[in-house]
Amino acid sequence: MEGEVKEIQMEIAAIKRDRLDVMTKRQMNVFTPITKLREELIRAKTLAEEERTRREKYETKLKDLELKLSEICHKEIPGHK
């Protein structure tokens, strides 16, 4: 009888482990895609920020060059009259 009780206890423990494994796998199936999407979102935000910074630098340089060109043109025009 003790042997049967121990066998039943072992079966119950195995069932509990299997149930825990199933629950863990379900959670991983839910959280893994969320984690991947979060990582992709962070990468996309980082790339967008880098692109915005480059664009701002380019626009600043372009405005500086336009201003210099405008100054050069305005200095030369009165001298030609």
Give your account of this protein's structure.
Keywords: Coiled coil. Residues 34-75 form a coiled coil. The chain is mainly α and 81 residues long. The protein has one helix spanning 2-80. The N and C termini lie far apart (119 Å). The relative contact order is 0.04.
- Terminal CA distance reads 119 Å
CA-atom Rg in angstroms: 35 Å
Tell me the domain tally.
Answer: 1
Bin the helical content: over 70%
Sheet-strand content, in percent, reads: under 5%
Uncertain regions spanning at least 5 consecutive residues: none
Largest sheet: none
Order of helices and strands: H
Number of strands: 0
Question: How many helix segments?
Answer: 1
Instruction: Estimate the global geometry from the Cα principal axes.
Output: rod-shaped
Overall average residue pLDDT: 88
